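The instructor's notes for this session suggest beginning with a concrete chain rather than abstract definitions. Hand out the sequence below and ask the class to guess, before any prediction is shown, which regions might be ordered.
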Amino acid sequence: METVEFFSAEDVAWQTNAPCATASFDFIPDVETDEGLAEAQQWCRTCDVRPTCLAWAMLHGAEGYWGGTSTYQRNQLRRVRTRAKCPLCLGTALVYEDPHELCLACGISWIRDVREEPIAATPLPQSAA
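After discussion, reveal the predicted structure:
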């Protein structure tokens, strides 16, 4: 799992290193489509700054394709609820550590609804400390 280093919300220097900086593809279209998302994911799949890009978009509520996600997918990640599968990769290998859930397949995490029992998540193993 990759950890995103702390960065200032105003700092967008990471964007200059992204392959999409020189792409002719419109990453912020008027209408987002499944085909557009698939093309954006082609660019984002191997991008070194993808975690930072996704974190920035989540912090700013950005619209368009950021970090290999659509606006709809990021809005789903913001929702506080218990999930049976990951909203990004649809994987079912989830673990939780209250109040967070983590997808083992793609590495994203979210805050789960603490008012309900987890549906398919299993607790993280206790570390031997």
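Then share the key points. DSSP finds three helices and four strands in the chain. Residues 19 and 46 are 9 Å apart (CA to CA).
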